[in-house]
Amino acid sequence: MSEVLAVSELTVSFPSEAGPVRAVRGMSYSVSSGEVLGIVGESGSGKSVSALAVMGLLPRTARVGGSVRFHGRELLGLGDRELSAVRGKGISMVFQDPLSALTPVYTVGDQIAEAVSIHTDVSKNEAARRAVELLELVGIPEPAIRARAFPHEFSGGMRQRVMIAMAMANDPDVIIADEPTTALDVTIQAQILEVLGTAQEATGAAIVMITHDLGVVAGFADRVMVMYAGRPVEAGGVDDLFYRPRMPYTLGLLGSLPRLDATEREPLTPLEGSPPSLVGLPSGCPFVPRCPMRIDVCSDTEPPLAPTADPRHTAACHRRTEIEARELGPADIFPAPLVGAAAVARLPRESRQPVLEVRDLERHYPLMKGVVFRRQVGTVRAVDGVSFDIREGETLGLVGESGCGKTTTIVQILTLARPTAGTVVVLGRDSARLDRGERRALRRNLSVVFQDPLASLDPRLPVGDILSEGLRTHGVPKQRRNRRVGELLRLVGLGPEHASRYPQDFSGGQRQRIAIARALALEPRLVVLDEPVSALDVSIRAGVINLLEELRARLGLAYLFVAHDLSVVRHIADRVAVMYLGRIIESGAVSAVFDTPAHPYTEALLSAIPIPDPRRERARRRVLLEGDLPSPFDIPSGCRFRARCPRYAALPGGLGARCREEEPVRLPQGADHDAACHYPPAPAAI
């Protein structure tokens, strides 16, 4: 394979009032035709900045040094006109947010055709025809029609497919994919990775995959580079890095990942603290404040990226040979105590009292049309007959794609308002029969932690006021409030001295700990966790997950854990409910549902979750779902999943008529396991 891109000693800095921000500090790598290089690390490690430097897309204030050679030609120092001839033709890029990257006032077909015509001498009709071909290649249904649509008319996954089509429009030699699957549903993530593989096959390009999730690159990359504080700290073949890591930071990242294939619940290995500021970095290894293996030399000298026993595998650690000789794993370097279960959780489930009972819950919204004369033209069936219960000390994971009704369900529970139909019973009280005073009193036992801690914490208030707000609302005396604030901060691993600081003074993980402390202020019995770790780096996420487990055991809490990441749900939940288009289509004990999924949708969700194990990832069978979730305004007849169901598509003869005409009900599939499918697939290993 010929080398197409070589980056050598790349440096990038930005001016700031506090001094230069050294975002990239000596980065070197190369990729050859058909090769995939994964670049991973926490937010702020310099991954995206390095990619923008290669593309020549940094602002003029940036100071870029080193070398970037494409087919031997130096790119640094070229003018914008010369770089424009390379961008899109020789090197293309798939950006993280396709909605921001696509121009909203032009159709997607016009934008792809423009990318073609800029670099190729073709007619307008030929460019438009090529755009349709590319949309078909990346799996856009009815490409000739959808080419005339605008970006806002596409779902997130389809917009990312458009970006990939644009990136491969001119058969580039290198495709840089910057977090291409971030913020996408797991099923869409699997589709995007599949499309990137198709793009590589069609163009023969090298791919540089930038991500914060090691699981994403496990089965996709040939080599992996781990970045920390602006520079690579470990690099090597994907098998070497996953099975024989030699840098404590890499070990911490791997240990912080909850695994879908875990058979026993083990504590995750959190990386305490945050990455350092890139302004005025002290001498020595920048990972020192977070490293349990640090010794004196670590604070004095920054280790170079040096070879291990395998010269193709390098690590920047003074103790790499010791880690190699002792074969240390994540739990050896970052030990975390195993959290026991609360006393109530040790009792049989049937002997525990329910804290939440949802029966046949419906939440429908009228779809209106007209401005002066408003009229109803349909009904949006956001939640369409949901039933589940949660017992004391239990965690129920509610999972499904965006738009399936998870958020509407938890809003209906949290507001304690009258539903369209069905009942919500909290601690034995029917929410539809409560007056205002009873509803307010019941809310003491029901709290919530939101997805984005920065958005959910008032930036104008110090942390102490944020934590005491609920206490003040419910009439808790000031002296008791002040004492309780200190108790809450200590409970979530912070200190009373943090009460006077503001949310923006904390890291993302610390802000989520503050949000959890606020949720616990009134000693609730049920906490609703709405994607509480999806906005966090994987290393920080592990600490928050461990904290949630510890608090559940210590306080005997019950959790309703809403998530789209089934690996997190497998780690933290006791039972799981899988939701699709307003209904729960499978539920039961986590082990039963995950080990023997009975519904094709559950099977597809499980197969879409990456496992941080390269050999297992390469051998897994993917169940890729076609298309996107249908609209709750126009729910298909019969089985609502049949339009995307691979099982339905393979049914012989007239067996499919039952799926088209009759909606399946949830039937037992085993002990504490039920599913709504007319033809449950045979159990398959994930």
How do the strands and helices of this protein lay out in sequence?
Layout: E1 3-14, E2 21-32, E3 36-40, H1 47-55, E4 63-70, E5 73-74, H2 80-86, E6 91-94, H3 98-101, H4 108-119, H5 124-137, H6 143-146, H7 156-167, E7 174-178, H8 186-203, E8 206-211, H9 214-218, E9 223-228, E10 231-237, H10 238-243, H11 248-255, H12 296-300, E11 306-307, E12 314-315, H13 320-326, H14 330-333, E13 354-369, E14 375-391, E15 395-399, H15 406-415, E16 421-426, E17 429-430, H16 436-442, E18 446-449, H17 453-456, H18 463-473, H19 478-491, H20 508-519, E19 526-530, H21 538-555, E20 558-563, H22 566-572, E21 575-580, E22 583-589, H23 590-595, H24 600-608, H25 614-619, H26 646-649, H27 656-661, E23 667-670, E24 673-675
Parallel strand pairs: 3-8, 3-9, 6-7, 7-8, 15-20, 15-21, 18-19, 19-20
Antiparallel strand pairs: 1-2, 1-4, 4-5, 9-10, 10-12, 11-12, 13-14, 13-16, 16-17, 21-22, 22-24, 23-24
Helix pairs in contact: 4-5, 4-7, 5-7, 7-8, 18-19, 18-20, 20-21
Q: Short summary of the structure?
A:
With 686 residues, the chain is of the alpha/beta class.
Structure description:
The protein is of the alpha/beta class and 686 residues long. The chain folds into three domains: 3-227, P-loop containing nucleotide triphosphate hydrolases (Rossmann fold, 3-Layer(aba) Sandwich), CATH 3.40.50.300; 354-369 and 378-559, P-loop containing nucleotide triphosphate hydrolases (Rossmann fold, 3-Layer(aba) Sandwich), CATH 3.40.50.300; 581-686, no CATH class. An eight-stranded mixed β-sheet has the order 6-7-8-3-9-10-12-11. The protein has an eight-stranded mixed β-sheet with strand order 18-19-20-15-21-22-24-23, with helices on both faces. Strands 2-1-4-5 form a four-stranded antiparallel β-sheet, covered by helices on one side. A hairpin with a 2-residue loop joins β9 and β10 (231-237). The relative contact order is 0.09. The mean pLDDT is 91.
